Amino acid sequence: MSTPWLQNALAQLAKNPVQGYNATTSAAAEPTALAALALLVHRQPRQALPALQWLASKQLPSGAVPVLEEQDEPCWTTSLALMAWQYYHAEYRDRNDSPTQLPSFERQTELAIRWSLAMRGEIIDSDDVGHNTRLTGWPWVAGTHSWLEPTALHVIAL
Hints:
Shape: globular
Number of domains: 1
């Protein structure tokens, strides 16, 4: 069952799915990927396409998708772009009953998977209690130790 506030939020996202962190900042990968996922989950693949295409246009040759379009790092948001492309393919592009003429993001997905599997946090010795910097996972920023959140996001995406 859909509520008026949800329909209003989806309508606003559909008008401009390429989002920044607020109304006055440039577009960023995290809010754009989350907007795409929201539209996809609510059966609006065509409205999500501008966001999916924007993410593809910002993907680096390495396969990484940086947080901000004007920076090459950090790239933890590759996980969110990968989630959006994977969901799009699973639910729309690759299904027999999918709408015709939908673009493919297979190459972008493949590159993002490769980058994600090659990325890992650095093992750093630390005496901090409750913060294990020796665990292997994904970092927020290349060259730093692993953190739970980017690791969880990449595990979900993969």
